[in-house]
Amino acid sequence: MVFKVINGEKSAIVDNTGEENGKVKITGNSDLVRVLDFHINNDYELFGDLYKVALKNFSDLILKNKTPVQLHKASDAYLKQYLIPKILEGALKFKIQDLTVNIS
Question: How confident is the model at residue 103 (pLDDT cuts 50, 70, 90)?
Fold first, then answer.
């Protein structure tokens, strides 16, 4: 899945082709790149209480075959169910493929 987040003149493009944690490509001309990269490509390993919270809220997105256990933040499902709604809550113009939603 490839989508673009636009905030005024600034934008970031997220490409999670392959859906591999830590390897989602995020490019653009905005501080959104840094923020999205940190959120998607980091903090996906689950330890202790984080595992319990993730199991409660994202049980279908946990990669149990990884050590340590990981939240599949690079997956289409995580991006669609969690990240994209969070972006939309921020009243940003959001574009995914050819679909544009403008919340303002």
Answer: very low
Greatest Cα pair distance, the chain, in angstroms, is 42
Does the reported pTM lie above 0.85? Answer: no
CB 16 within 8 Å of CB 1: yes
Residue among 20, 1, 12 at smallest CA distance from 99: 1
**∠ CA(68), CA(86), CA(46), 5° rounding?**
10
DSSP reduced 3-state for 3 = strand
**34 HSE (CA, 13 A, CB side):** 3
Phi-psi region at 41: left, alpha or beta (left = phi > 0; alpha = psi -120 to 50): alpha
